[in-house]
């Protein structure tokens, strides 16, 4: 039963990846480069989809934790990726199907179709879309088979050759491989599906394996259809290069003129299903992402925007539709809308994969964008000329932005050497106990002295966090207070409030916050005697995270009063004796104190 539940995800996984890039480019690549060209494109595409599910299914952290951790850093590139995918989908649908079949003035029909698909994505949950996409798959594949059989009967084209490669194809091998292998990682639709499958107790790897195979079937159906009609109706794009994406549309138009209008209807049904399933998935997933990010955001600007507007993907759809409808009359080629997936987005995708595999966050959005733009420019030059070498190296240039994360993940492991710099994470605690005060029992590894510093280690939990998820600011003060009490207990184990003649009071406390910590980070609190005079002792403290370094530091001043009238006292002898081993080296109370030469000369004078 569990296997069946996983397999039911295959249709929505396959359809959600069948946007214009896969649907129409499978036709073009088959007619332009032959069957080997198609299989090279399809295997890379299918392999990237499967690897996404396989890796997320085997990571130690569940996908929902990963997406919460990365959403802030990758929000911009996630949304830009969704918009780029929509541009490819809408442009391909209008340029290679709707306009050739319906003719000019088809914009209103496309707009209604897009709004209808968005309404479905808004009204239905992902589980409901999953069931709807099963129905879509049955209807769409049936229409595609009818189209394939009808075109084969009406056409005398012998079929595409095994291969017909040119220099441009060889240059496109690496962009195709890298772009498709990394592509799914920036698609919010796949993250939403992976999170939902995992929460249901399903197997993400199995579901995506089945979805990838079904997706290959969709591509293969289009390739067979292209092979049945041949490169008819090829057009020259703005760059002067032929595009064969509209071959099937041209064949159905000719078939309709010969009394076989049902073939055009079948192709429209299959293509509309591919478009609608992409758009409703986009709306559902993007809305899910924006709602989650909006709820977890503490930005004051978002508080002024209604939730429905802040989490609505419609503005992305409007932007994508404007770009697509502008590009169609300009006779752009689909290749230039595919290009960003092999250049501009490569750095972010690679960084994201490395983080999912355990690397520390190193993604720099601005740097990655600049590198991606340079990679895109080299790709365009290499494609038009053509210069196969430029095409080949373009994705590697895009990967430069992910090199730090890649090196950390696959490079040699080095052991960190502790350094005495307060802005760096410290690793002072070892499995062996810390040094204990003379005459006392052995101290546990959770607290004890390390030189002049008293060190306490702890791990914050959800109890220590606020509603945002970070550790509540007052808990840092509480931790310092706890470390101070343990410090006193170790130094003065016989101190008893019932019999003491003095009290130790806090005269002042300051703390400079540097960074915030989260639950389950290893926290180290360090405290030591910084200075003193006759009546007051100043303690210095630092709070460190094992992953973030210095979280904050500060000081507190202690005063001593008698227990009867709270009159100020000089530092009591019990305190001097208890703190004897830990007075600052420049203190006259320290047993290690050595007067400076200037002081000795001054006394002798």
Automatic annotation (TrEMBL):
Q: In the record, which residues are listed under signal peptide?
A: none
| Source species, domain of life | Bacteria
Q: Does the keyword Membrane apply?
A: yes
The entry's keywords: Membrane, Transmembrane, Transmembrane helix
User: CDD domains from the xrefs?
Assistant: 4HBT (cd00586)
Q: Which residues cross the membrane?
A: 7-27, 33-56, 77-99, 105-124, 131-149, 169-188, 200-221, 261-289, 301-328, 334-354, 366-384, 390-410
InterPro entries assigned to the protein according to its UniProt record, in alphabetical order: HotDog_dom_sf
What Pfam families does the entry give?
4HBT_2
Cell wall biogenesis/degradation as a keyword? no
Q: What's the protein name?
A: Thioesterase
